[in-house]
Structure formats: C-alpha cells, structure tokens
Amino acid sequence: MINMIKWCFLWVLFPMALAQASGEFKATPAEQAMCQAVIYDGRDTSDRENWGHMHHFCDCVRFTNRAIGRMGVERNFEATRAVDNCDYVLSHAKPDFNMRGEIHLQKGKALNLQGRRGPASSEFLKALSINPDLIAAYVALSDNYAKIGVRKEALNFVIEGLKRAPNSRVLQRRYTELGGKLPFPEPLTRAAPTPVAPPEQVSPPADAEPSTKNIPPSEDKNMNSESSDNAPVTDSPASTSSPIPINETPTGTPSSPWCRFCPPP
Q1: How many C-beta neighbours within 10 Å does residue 97 have?
Q2: Same structural domain for residues 115 and 139?
Q3: Rounded CA gap, 257 and 249, in Å?
Q4: Which domain does 112 fall in, by range?
Q5: 209 pLDDT exceeds 70?
Q6: Residue 136 and residue 97 in one domain
C-alpha cells in the first residue's frame, strides 16, 4: 500500500516537474541580448547559407545556460534541448563553416551537464581539431580528465592550452592545481607573416612592356611630359616612321628661298 502511494505520488510529480522544466521555449529579452552579444556581434554573417541556421545555436547556448541553474530532471531536459539544437546546426551547416568549432564546444558543455563526460570530451577534441585556439575546450578537457582521476592527461591539456594562451589565468590556475612546475610552459613560436614587397620592387612579368630606364636621354625626353600617366598614348607626327613630305619648289625671296612669309627685298 505504501509503495503504491509512493508510485502515485511520483506519477503526479513527474509530469509537474517536466512541465516546469519545459518552461517557455521562446527566448527571453535577456537571452536574446546574450545571443546577440555572444554569437552575432563582431562577426561576418554575410554567409547566409550557413548563418541562416545559427538561431538554433542560440537555442543551444541559452538552453545550456538554463540547465546550469537547474537540477535533476529539469537540468537533463534543458541540456537535451541544447544538444538537439547544436546537432541541428552541425547537420545543416557546411563542413567548412568557421563556427563549427564553437558549436562542438557548446555541445560538449551541454553533454557535461548530463554527466556524459566521454561524449563531451569527444566534442571538445573535435572543437580543437577545427580551432586549436579555443581555450575553453582545453579547460573543459582538463576538468573532465581530472574528475575521473587521470591527472597527468589533465595537465597535458593545460600545457597545450598555455602554449597557445600563456596569459590565461584559468589555465595558469589549473596548471598549479594539477602539480605543474614553474615557470609556465613556453608559448608556441608562431611564424611571422611574409612581408609583401612594395610595388616598385615587384619584378614585372615576362611579357610586360620593356623598361624605360635604359633608353638614351635623346629618346627618353618625351617620357616626362606633363600629360596624365593614365592618358591614352597616341603617336605624334614627330614619332611616325614616315617623314613629312617636303615641297621641292623653293618659295619666298632669292636670298631666303625657304622663307615663305618673308617680305621682298
């Protein structure tokens, strides 16, 4: 009889708890502001084919946050909704979408809230394989391995994170907590960007126009004309190959037969 009363009591409480856990699906104003700040602000969202699915990532983030503040059935329910929405984006966005690393990271956080640390760690590793600079993934992996007693592996993830973010206070704290010895690991040496030669130092292509540097002065004097550099080049009479025809019959005065306009003596 007592067991039956217990089962009836649970039968009534479970739907009530589930209804409370489901809550309002619609994002609150605070959640909308959070999604805008965390997901959209400062990012190039012109790729509509991929970013058109990112409202589901907003759902993944906000349901994860709801799960953090709840326990038991309510936490599991909200975390499940978070995982489902992250999976939606991962299955619909292109493989080269630049946000996939952060989506795997967020899915791993939701799985952790369900106590599924193995699948969560797999998601964190996927996130780092896409974006090795996701510091939160190193922290989460370190915490997961530390909680199951594998402290050496936990420390290794912290070391890898510190090589990429040597000033991270979270990773520095994890490093000392896990028995790491000072000084902290040396940061990675990142290759400097290759300098680009100034335009005047760039070698012209093989089929480019010949340079004017070696043209004799007598031939180069017309190259410095006051006309615009962008003006079309046209042949002047002086530069044509055929000479101008000359009238062979002298005109003018006898003393100056070529002076056409000279007055007579």
Answers
A1: 19
A2: no
A3: 9
A4: 27-38+51-119
A5: no
A6: no
Cα-flanking dihedrals φ and ψ of residue 79, to 5°? -65, -35
Of 171, 188, 205, the last residue of a domain is 188
Residues 96 and 32 in one domain: yes
d(CA 81, CA 71): 15
**Separation CA 163–CA 184 (nearest Å):** 9
Q: Which of 119, 147, 177 is the last residue of a domain?
A: 119
- Which among 52, 56, 136 is positioned nearest to 89, based on CA atoms? 56
Q: How confident is the model at residue 192 (pLDDT cuts 50, 70, 90)?
A: low
32-46 pLDDT, tens digit each: 999 999 999 999 999
Please work out, in degrees rounded to the nearest 5, the angle formed at the alpha carbon of residue 129 by the alpha carbons of 42 and 190.
70
Say if 100 falls within a structural domain: yes
What six digits make up the tokens of 33?
């502001």
Give the global pTM. Answer: 0.65
**Could you tell me which residues come within 8 angstroms of residue 154 by beta carbon, excluding any fewer than 6 positions away?**
141, 142, 143, 144, 145, 146, 174, 178
Tell whether 19 is covered by a domain. no
